[in-house]
Amino acid sequence: MIQKKQDSYKVAVAAVAGTDPKNIILTITEARRRAGSVKVETKILAGSPARMAELKNTLGNDVKALQAKLDKQLVAQGLSKSSGVTPPTVSDPKAAGAPKKLSAGVMHAPSLMFGVMVTALVLRFSSV
After folding, report:
1. Distance between CA atoms of 8 and 109, rounded to whole angstroms?
2. Can you tell me the distance from the alpha carbon of 103 to that of 117, in angstroms, rounded to the nearest whole number?
3. CA 119 to CA 73: how far, in whole Å?
4. Is position 126 within any domain?
5. 117 and 31 Cβ atoms separated by less than 8 Å
6. Which one of 38, 46, 78, 79 has the fewest CB atoms closer than 10 angstroms to its CB?
7. Which domain holds residue 62?
8. Domain for residue 125, yes or no?
9. For residues 92-106, b (16+ Cβ closer than 10 Å) or e, as one string?
10. Beta bridge mates, 41
């Protein structure tokens, strides 16, 4: 059930970003400031700097607009609305000082990241 909700979250983000859910990597941690919530670091793999620019343009810089688009897709997937979204940031491996590889020798692709705060019932790691 937990994996299904995480997959639904990826489908929602993919719909907003105009990408495939397979291009989305999630890092989920419990939120310290809001009881019963989790923070979802959402990383969208772009594959190229040109595609990264397209993603950045699609998501935009307006956090409220991004949250509204995301919430619409979350609800469409049967999930709860978010309680907050952070601005998207770009990760480019060609930038000075950027890591060239992730663990296990996997190449670090250009990507776009943002954070989302959602209720813990949506994406909780451990089952109750």
Report:
1. 24
2. 26
3. 16
4. no
5. yes
6. 78
7. 2-120
8. no
9. eeeeeeeeeeeeeee
10. 27, 115
Residues contacting 29, CB < 8 A, separation 6+: 38, 39, 41
**Span 3-38, pLDDT tens digits:** 898 999 999 999 999 999 999 988 888 766 656 677
pTM: 0.76
Q: List the structure tokens of 61.
A: 């810089």
Q: How many CA atoms lie within 13 A of 4 on its CB side?
A: 6
113 bridge partner residues: 43, 89
User: Please, are residues 92 and 112 in contact by the beta-carbon 8 Å criterion?
Assistant: no
**CA pair distance 88, 95, nearest whole angstrom:** 17
What is the number of domains present in the chain? 1
In a domain, 128, yes or no: no
